[in-house]
Specification:
The chain folds into 2 domains: 253 residues, ANL, N-terminal domain (Rossmann fold); 96 residues, GMP Synthetase, Chain A, domain 3, CATH 3.30.300.30. It is of the alpha/beta class. Strand 12 and strand 13 form a beta hairpin. Helix 1 runs antiparallel to helix 2 and helix 3 crosses helix 4. The longest helix is centred in the first third of the chain and has 15 residues. It is built from 9 helices and 19 strands. The strands form 4 sheets. A 12-stranded mixed β-sheet has the order 1-5-4-6-7-8-9-10-14-13-12-11. The protein has a 3-stranded mixed β-sheet with strand order 17-18-19, with helices on one face. Helices cover 25% and strands 29% of the residues.
């Protein structure tokens, strides 16, 4: 019996300029795992997992929309996901890529898998909010979270194709990307779907909807939530809690989270839609949520990552904001010096709300 397919390292694969055969990569994984740098330890741990004979590996969900949980993924499915990304974006052997996300999460892991499978020349750097600041090279393909993109706007000319995930891309950031040469795409996905299963171009020729990757189709359940059918990356259909407007079996618009809907005095409010409207007004990190209220059941409140803010002025600006209804104006504003974050650097809304109660 031959080696499992995930042991097939593309001959053009490079990691920080070095070529590897299977045994060499296993040795390097051991070196990384014993590094003093945490980001290298997590890289090493993943590469040890990937180069083992086991057909599956365990990963942890981010916990940004619920309690973090450990799930089992098939390596064969991860390989198929990498191939679908390569096909959609036209990635070729020897194309250059940058890993600037932690390998504790699925996004960082999959940048390694894509490089191994597609034969990319991958550089890795310690994850930071300014991943391009020390990079002299240009890259064909990079994945970042919105905060990294925001802090790298003056350096994105070093990147040809950029995928942005981990959180929604707000209106303000989309506007800033319009005059930059990079091809920027917002992604839709989760750990259960092995990162993105759909993308949308947000500059150049922007799209107002997500388009699925090859071999992926979508539908809706009776709640209006997205169902993902992707047999090459998941044995079962993935039923999400994401409210969508379905355009076709391959196109949809994301509206928000079903489980984050706020019922305020009988009016249903979708936080993500309100945040999209407020993003043109607020420059710092923020989010809206519902907290218990004796009269309304739940009342809408705004959390700002800031030392302080002129609340009267902000309330006045929100009342003047086109498209923001009276019901969508938060009843109260809370300022926090710094937001609690998940391990993958997403805002930990649940923890912040627990601290308030």
């Amino acid at each position: 019996m031959g080696n499992p397919i995930w042991h097939n390292i593309h001959s053009d694969f490079r990691l920080n300029g070095n070529a590897f055969h299977l045994e060499g990569l296993r040795d390097f994984a051991e070196q990384l795992a014993s590094s003093s740098a945490h980001f290298e330890q997590s890289m090493g741990a993943f590469l040890k997992d990937w180069t083992s004979d086991a057909p599956t590996l365990t990963v942890q969900t981010s916990g940004s929309t619920g309690t973090p949980k450990t799930i089992l993924l098939k390596k064969e499915h991860m390989l198929h996901s990498a191939q679908a990304t390569g096909q959609y974006f036209g990635l070729l052997p020897k194309n250059s890529a940058l890993l600037c996300l932690p390998c504790t999460g699925i996004a960082g892991k999959m940048m390694l898998v894509r490089s191994l499978v597609l034969g990319l020349s991958l550089d890795y750097v310690e994850p930071s909010s300014t991943p391009l600041s020390a990079q002299k090279k240009e890259y064909d393909f990079v994945a970042m979270v919105p905060l990294q993109v925001q802090n790298s706007l003056d350096q994105l000319n070093k990147v040809k194709k950029l995928i942005i995930g981990g959180a929604a891309v707000d209106t303000s950031l989309k506007e800033k990307l319009q005059d930059i040469s990079v091809e920027a795409y917002e992604t839709y996905g989760m750990t259960e779907t092995i990162t993105h299963i759909a993308v949308k171009r947000i500059n150049g020729k922007p799209m107002d909807h997500f388009e699925t990757l090859p071999n992926v189709s979508v539908a809706q359940d009776d709640r209006g939530c997205l169902i993902v059918h992707a047999p090459s990356i998941s044995d079962e259909k993935v039923v999400t809690n994401d409210l969508v407007e379905l355009i076709s079996a391959n196109k949809f618009r994301w509206l928000g989270r079903y489980d984050s809907i706020i019922n305020s005095g009988g009016v249903k409010l979708v936080p993500e839609q309100i945040e999209e409207k407020l993003s043109s007004l607020i420059q710092s990190r923020f989010f809206v949520a519902g907290i218990p209220d004796e009269t309304l059941g739940q009342k809408l409140v705004l959390f700002l990552e800031a030392e302080s803010v002129d609340k009267d002025s902000l309330f006045h600006q929100m009342k003047q904001l086109p498209g923001l209804s009276t019901y969508e104006i938060p009843k109260r504003i809370y300022c926090l010096t710094s937001f609690a974050e998940t391990k993958t650097k997403k805002i930990d809304r649940k923890k912040i709300l627990e601290q308030l109660s």
